[in-house]
């Protein structure tokens, strides 16, 4: 990655608990910009289509199913022309096979950053332009058990710029044939449910005593929606 982009990413605020409708760093390319190349921007997570009357939708748009995005009413336009990359050290995912659900942090086994393929859009009906994004998801056998093997589409470090800057003839084939990085996961505290918490302690492995504390939350209706397992067959999205 060019040094200028690395510097720009490092200048972004550290974030440890990003949720829908909150900002995150993305790598994107603006065809209307006066300068060439990929830029670093701070976009809101949860894509808002240009035709929306309000800066939100009644659908969950933090993720977009890879196989459905090209025909989706919400994602079709950005699929065709507005691609981005979402760099991350890892992400949270819930194991919902147990009660209460247990959160894990997933990261690359080699310790490198993960580069997730995404789509972006600009909503311009407000006082200021609102840049938003979504992350493309698909089945991923690299996600370790007991977690559902479904998550972001990751791009290789060596040629991720293709997704952002080039008009790919067959974007679906390109993404579905990419080798995915080896992943590992460890359990973290259910404190990630608190969207006001955003500090590095959330990444610490859960202590043995946390299992007892978790039982106090048997209502478990508030374990976050990580979006990676969403598979709603909604053709209107």
Q: Give the topology string: H per helix, E per strand.
A: HEEEHEEEEEEHHEH
Count the strands? 10
Average pLDDT works out at 87
> What is the highest CATH level, the class?
Alpha Beta
Number of domains: 1
Shape: globular
What share of residues are in beta strands?
25-35%
In CATH terms, the superfamily is SOS response associated peptidase-like
In which range does the helix fraction lie?
10-25%
> Which structural category do the helix and sheet elements fall into?
alpha+beta
What distance lies between the first and last C-alpha atoms, to the nearest angstrom?
34 Å
Side by side, the strands of the main sheet go 1-2-8-7-4
Biggest sheet record: 5 strands, mixed, barrel
Number of helices: 5
Regions with pLDDT < 50 over 5+ consecutive residues? 217-221, 231-237
Q: What is the name of the CATH architecture?
A: Alpha-Beta Complex
What integer value in Å does the Rg equal? 18 Å
